[in-house]
Structure formats: C-alpha cells, structure tokens
Amino acid sequence: MASERPVTPPPQSASAHSTFPPISSLTPEQVKRIEINRLKAKALRDQREAEVRKQSGNLAAGQKRAHSTFTTSNVPTALRDGRSKDAGKIGGSRPLDDIRPARNFAKFVEYDFSKMTDTKGGFLTAEDDPHNKALHQPNSEDKPAHMTLKEWERHQLLRSLRQRKEGPFEPGIRALKKEENKICRECESLEIDFKWEEIFGCAVCNACKDKYPDKYSLLTKTEAREDYLLTDPELKDEELLPHLERPNPHKATFHNMMLFLRYQVEDYAFGKKWGSAEALDEEFSRREKEKKKRKEDKFKSKLQELKKKTRVDAYRRSRKGGGGGGEFGDEIGRGGKHTHTWGRAVENAEGIGVKTCVECGMEVEELEF
C-alpha cells in the first residue's frame, strides 16, 4: 500500500480553541475585576521592592546582604516590569530603581543647569533662595515653553526690528503734510536714521554719516574723557550728552559701551566747558606738564632717600674699617677721594635705569628725558 503524504490540517479560527472571550465581549463586571487584580499586583510589586531597598540600605560596613534579597526564588513567573531589560523572563535582571550606587559615589549630586541662574556670584536655583525675586523672574532671552523654535526666532527678529526701527516698524513718510516730515540736516533726504533721531536727536541719513565721519562718528567714553577732558558726571548726564549703548566687544560680561556723537561732544567741550579748541589744547598741555613735574618730584624724592641710605652705609663701612669717620665720597680705608667707576645702566622693576659702581657697589638711578 502506497504511503500517503501527510496533509497539513487547515487553520482553525482562534475563537474555536480560545478559552477567553474576546475583549469586545467583556462585561463591565469583568473589566472591573481585571483592573482590581492589576492594581493588587502592582501594589505587591511595589511592596516587595521597598522591602529589598530597606534591607540593602540598612547594612553596616563590611556586612553582606542576605541571600534572599538577590535570589531569583521570590521572583514571580511573569515579571511584567517595563524598566527591566529581561521583562517577562524568569530570573531576569532587577529594575533600575533597585540598583544602588557605590559607597564612594553615594554623595554625588547631579545639578540641572537649565534651571539655574547666573547671578555673577554663583549659579543658584529658585529653590536655594525662594525669596529672591531675581531668581524667579522669567529670563527674556530664553524660549518660552509654549512657543516653537520657528515662532521664537520670528519673535526675536521682530523685537530686533522694533528696537532699531527698521522694516515694518520704520516711521512712515507723510505725503500730504510734507512740512511735518523730518529730513536730513546735510542733504535734506527723507531717509534718515530714526534710531539716531530718537537717541541723539540728530536727523541724518546713513549716506551722510559715512560721508562726514569728522562730525557723525561715534566716540567711546574713554576717548571723550581723555581727548576732550570731560568728567564722568558730565558723560553720564543724558540731557547734557545723550549716548548710545552697545554690547562690549571685549567680553560679554562687561558693562555696555557708551557711544557719543562726535559733533555733540565737540560742541559741548569747545563751546561750553573750555571755550575753544585752543583753550582745550592749553589745558591739555598744562595737565601734561603737571604730570611730568609730579613724576620728576617723585624721582627726586627717591634719589634723596637713596643718598641718605648710601651716606649711612658709607659711614658704617668706614667705622668698621678702623677709620675715624669721613665725608661722603671718601675712599674707605685708604683716605683720599674715591672716583666711581659706573657700569652699564640696567632697568629695574619700575622701568628706571640703575647704574652700579664697580668698586664700592653704589647704585644711582638715572632718568632719560
């Protein structure tokens, strides 16, 4: 009899051999019972994990853990913990929450710098000082949580244009009332820099700013103080000398630069304070002479102190050599006049040249004019 080829039986529907009813056919009572069982299992798992953590945390130095705390005998057959790599396997790895750090790293603190504020005296969080208003104020430079990156970039662009009064925020030109339009003071153009007009009160166009740099260039606070001999209270008075603030190019944490308009500084310095440019030059020369005189007086006072010190040292050396004393400059131990033999001038730490006698060791400072 010929052997018959085995035939695979046709697939049967899952409902024929399934012992559980489909999900759609569950009654509300069955759904409630399933949810209660799930919550009970979760509570048991949390209780077991808490006991394990308590046993492992109360160990003394050098004491070993109990065998029951890390054996797999008490692990349920169906470990449904999504935090475990081997979830659903018997004897799988413990959850990540049960892994304790080593004793040397138990005091490690992880800081979230996104929640900290640079107070220029340290990075602090709002939890460190809850009564500090500066820490609780929202930072205008950070993107709000409800805005997307594209919306935040658009918001920053509009804010920059609004500050510079450019683009859609540039003041319009009136066609009917032409006498009310502000024009350039040099070429009478209508395209003026409205930012300068608001800060300096100077209506001038960009082309004339580049064409006349001797009038419309910007001066820093240091240049205005040193070249025009203006004081800090005068430069800080915005009604007297308006200024434009810009970020410091040397370092972002420095104070903003104060930029002044050249012709306004010259009008105040030449017209109100000193009277003319010649009077300013005379005052500058007088201050330079006083500075030079103070430097010379300081050098002479140091030279006198050096002479006194040298005279005392010479007297002591002569007494030590057996002589009965002498005058300054006498040769020690031999009598007669001593002639110094000076070496080459060497600059000291203060930048002043010092010559030393080869024979007696006397030092003399020299000043080159």
Give a quick precis of the structure.
With 369 residues, the chain is mostly helical. The protein has helices spanning 14-17, 28-57, 133-136, 149-164, 194-199, 206-211, 213-216, 221-227, 232-236, 262-273, 277-320; strands spanning 116-118, 123-125, 218-219, 244-246, 257-261, 346-347, 353-356, 363-366. The protein contains 11 helices and 8 strands.
Q: What is the molecular shape?
A: flat
- Give the distance, in angstroms, between the N- and C-terminal Cα atoms: 133 Å
How many strands, what sense, and barrel or not for the largest sheet?
Answer: 3 strands, antiparallel
**Widest β-sheet, arrangement of strands:** 3-5-4
Low-confidence runs (pLDDT<50, min 5 residues)? Answer: none
List the helices and strands in order: HHEEHHHHHEHHEEHHEEE
Number of β-strand runs:
8
Structural category: mainly alpha
Q: Tally the helices: what do you get?
A: 11
Mean pLDDT: 76
Which percent range describes the beta-strand content? 5-15%
Rg measurement, Å = 45 Å
Give an account of the 3D structure.
A hairpin with a 6-residue loop joins strand 7 and strand 8 (363-366). The strands form three sheets. The chain has a three-stranded antiparallel sheet. The chain has 369 residues and is mainly α. The chain has helices at 14-17, 28-57, 133-136, 149-164, 194-199, 206-211, 213-216, 221-227, 232-236, 262-273, 277-320; strands at 116-118, 123-125, 218-219, 244-246, 257-261, 346-347, 353-356, 363-366. The radius of gyration is 45 Å and the shape is flat.
Task: Map the helices and strands.
Layout: H1 14-17, H2 28-57, E1 116-118, E2 123-125, H3 133-136, H4 149-164, H5 194-199, H6 206-211, H7 213-216, E3 218-219, H8 221-227, H9 232-236, E4 244-246, E5 257-261, H10 262-273, H11 277-320, E6 346-347, E7 353-356, E8 363-366
Antiparallel strand pairs: 1-2, 3-5, 4-5, 6-7, 7-8
